[in-house]
């Protein structure tokens, strides 16, 4: 299992996220977003730490309006934890490392 974060687009969302066998952490970000720079290391940490039970993808918001609208992303950075067609976690803004890992642990154990 790869421990890297995969960059996806609207066109790849169904295959990469909705059809994934394990939960998927979707990280919504923007190149112009300063707070996104603070969350990126945590997203990478999640990909490494939970690589055996979590897939991590990132999606830039500006070129991917369909998924952004579908998952009601109103600000970045934003995370959505999705398993199949179920939304397990939805959060926006910078989250502390402890809170971020707690959110994941709750749904991965």
Commentary on this structure:
The structure is a single chain. This protein is α/β, with parallel strands linked by helices and 109 residues long. It has a single domain, classed as 3-Layer(aba) Sandwich (Glutaredoxin). Helix content is 39%, strand content 25%. The protein has a 5-stranded mixed β-sheet, sandwiched between helices. The longest helix has 16 residues. The mean pLDDT is 95.
Observed structural traits:
single chain; 109 residues; alpha/beta; Glutaredoxin; five-stranded mixed β-sheet; 4 helices; globular
Per-chain topology:
Layout: E1 6-7, H1 10-18, E2 24-29, H2 34-49, E3 55-60, H3 65-70, E4 78-83, E5 86-92, H4 97-108
Parallel strand pairs: 1-3, 2-3
Antiparallel strand pairs: 2-4, 4-5
**Quantity of strands, as a count:** 5
Shape: globular
SS field, number of helical segments: 4
Proportion of residues in β-strands = 15-25%
**Termini, distance in Å?**
18 Å
Q: What is the CATH level 1 assignment?
A: Alpha Beta
CATH architecture assignment: 3-Layer(aba) Sandwich
Give the structural class.
alpha/beta
Major β-sheet strand ordering: 1-3-2-4-5
**Averaged pLDDT:** 95
């Amino acid at each position: 299992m790869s421990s890297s974060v995969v960059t996806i687009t609207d066109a790849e969302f169904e295959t990469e996220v909705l059809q994934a066998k394990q939960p998927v952490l979707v990280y919504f970000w923007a190149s112009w977003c300063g707070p996104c720079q603070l969350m990126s290391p945590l997203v990478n940490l999640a990909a490494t730490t939970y690589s055996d039970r979590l897939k991590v993808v990132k999606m830039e918001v500006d070129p991917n309006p369909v998924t952004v609208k579908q998952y009601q992303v109103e600000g970045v950075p934003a995370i959505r934890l999705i398993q199949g067609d179920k939304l397990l976690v939805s959060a926006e803004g910078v989250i502390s490392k402890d809170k971020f890992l707690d959110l994941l642990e709750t749904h991965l154990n």
